[in-house]
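can u pls check wat happens w/ magnesium ion
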Amino acid sequence: MKKLLYSEKEIKKRVRELAALIDLDYQCRELTVICVLKGSVIFMTDLIREIKTPLTYDFIFLSSYNGAKSTSCIRLEKDLTLSLKDKHVLVVEDIFDTGFTGEFLRERIMAEEPASLKFCVLLRKKDVDLNLKIDYTGFDIGAEFVVGYGLDYRQKYRQLKDLHILSEEEL
Ligand code: IMP
Ligand code: MG
């Protein structure tokens, strides 16, 4: 059984608010948005269409999850294609759980010597590593396992329009 966490309408509203905050911060400095595949693709495509600041985007594909467990072993499945040197980089992530993926991203992107680096995360779980600064957060949530709006359980449920909590029996 799935339980509704945030509806499509609530997500849309929050995405618009995040885009407004981003526009305010960047003014007219051009942005390079990095979408972290696969989970962030729906959030990122909705978010950039609300952002007015000029931008380009690129993808990086990382994997760490094994079913419903986060692991510290991050695999780089597909690397960036754009140079990020001297760019204002905004990483768009679906969810921060342990923060290992975020740490990996920070290191990978800082190696490119960007002008600045910020993180925008739709969902932040409770025990995320506090050392990792998140600049824009959609929603703070508990420890539950969430699916929908791009987030999966064993590659399923990504196409759901709302965010749902997956029950223990389904994990
Ligand atoms: P972290 O490295 O532990 O922060 O995990 C980050 C990645 O794990 C996210 O980008 C997601 O792909 C996945 N993940 C963590 N929690 C959930 C969840 O509740 N539902 C679906 N995927 C999750
Ligand atoms: Mg992800």
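The chain has one domain: 8-142.
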